[in-house]
Each structure stands twice: as structure tokens, then as C-alpha cells.
Amino acid sequence: MDRLAGILRQEIGADGRVLDAGSGSGFISNELCRRGIDAFAVDRCDYENRAREFGYPIIAVYQRDALGDAVDHVSSQFAAVLLIWPPYEQPFAFDIAKAMQPGQLLIFEGEGADGCTGDDKFFEYVADGNCWTALKGLSDQLDAVHVTFATQSDHWMIWRKAR
Ligand SMILES: C[S@@+](CC[C@H](N)C(=O)[O-])C[C@H]1O[C@@H](n2cnc3c(N)ncnc32)[C@H](O)[C@@H]1O
């Protein structure tokens, strides 16, 4: 989190806002806010009530600034967008990336094109060097301190939207 916050500060400046799209519990946004990053967490799942409905223990929600479709929140007010473990059975990651504007930073954490995060159209899109500049040096900085759990092969990927 320290390293992610440092990269954000370096790339989007002190005033840059971050959209955490599909934030889940909002744990990451909360950690970023604690480090002075203005992160806005959006998820369409009402975890507390959903848990209650199914008789599960209440799921902790650390931060959620909006409940709804994160695609509707992509706008020029955000300098960077986080896509951390986006779902793969639907074109969510693609829709987010498509809605982004030139100059915005996209920070993805998950498995690659053959894994269980993100959709095929997303990986095809971000591989287009005319639309996206891959910032491999930054991804490597995060991967260097990333803990991968057994059976998972997730890693960080960072791009800047070119057009
Ligand atoms: C695998 S979870 C990852 C959650 C969180 N980013 C994390 O890493 O803990 C995927 C999340 O995406 C959310 N999601 C899927 N489609 C969405 C949409 N259109 N708008 C907002 N959230 C969405 C789901 O509700 C779920 O919480």
C-alpha cells in the first residue's frame, strides 16, 4: 500500500483523485486514504445487506463512497482508476477501460488474459499500443513486493491511456 500510494503521488500529484472501480470491501481505498490519497470506492454489491439476507456474518466494508455501476463514475475528475481483481465473466474491465479518458492512469491487479480476472476484450484493448502506454517499470515496482497466494497468479499492470 505504501508503494502504491507513492506511485500514485508521483504519477498523479497530490491533488489527483483515484476511482476504485469494483472496490469490494473498499479495503484498498481505505488504506490509500489513510496515506493521504483521495480514493473513491464504488461497488454495485451491497455487501452488508446481502450477507444478512443469506444469513452470513456481516462482511466488513471499510470504505464505499457509492453503491452502483462503477462505469457510470468514470470521469475526468479522476486522474487514476484502480481495477483490482475485476470479474471475468462480464465485460466490466473493458467497459471501465473504454470509458477512461486520455492521460488517465489505469492500475490493474489480477491474473493475465488466461486467468480469472478481467475479460478477453479488456486484455485485447490494453495490448493496443496506440491506445495505451504500458508502464512496466511501475508494475515491476509493485510486483517486487506483491504476495501471491497458492493457486493464484496475480500481478500488477499499469497503463496510461494514450487516446
Ligand atoms: C473479485 S471482487 C474484487 C473486489 C475488490 N476490488 C478486491 O480486490 O477485494 C469484484 C468486485 O467487482 C464488483 N463489480 C462487478 N461489476 C461491477 C460494476 N459494474 N460496478 C461496480 N462494481 C462491480 C463486484 O460486486 C465485486 O465486489
Quickly describe the structure.
With 163 residues, the chain is of the alpha/beta class. It is built from 6 helices and 7 strands; from the N terminus they run αβαβαββαβαβαβ.
Supply the key terms:
163 residues; alpha/beta; Rossmann fold; seven-stranded mixed β-sheet; binds S-adenosylmethionine
Following the backbone from N to C, one meets helices and strands in this order, namely: HEHEHEEHEHEHE
- Please name the CATH topology: Rossmann fold
Q: Which ligands appear in the coordinates? A: S-adenosylmethionine
Tell me which CATH architecture applies here: 3-Layer(aba) Sandwich
Helix content: 25-40%
Specify Rg, calculated over alpha carbons. Answer: 15 Å
Q: Got a strand count?
A: 7
Tell me what portion of residues adopts beta-strand conformation: 15-25%
Strand order of the largest sheet: 3-2-1-4-5-7-6
By secondary-structure content and strand pairing, the structural class works out as alpha/beta
The tally of domains stands at 1
Detailed description of the structure:
The structure is a single chain. With about 160 residues, the protein is an alpha/beta fold. It has a single domain, classed as Vaccinia Virus protein VP39 (Rossmann fold, 3-Layer(aba) Sandwich), CATH 3.40.50.150. It has six helices and seven strands. It has helices spanning about 1-10, 25-35, 45-55, 90-100, 120-125, 135-145; strands at about 15-20, 40-45, 65, 80-85, 105-110, 130-135, 155-160. Strand 4, helix 4 and strand 5 (about 105-110) form a beta-alpha-beta unit. About 35% of the residues are buried. The structure holds S-adenosylmethionine. S-adenosylmethionine binds near residues 42, 45, 84 and 86. S-adenosylmethionine (SAM) binds near residues 45, 70, 84 and 92.
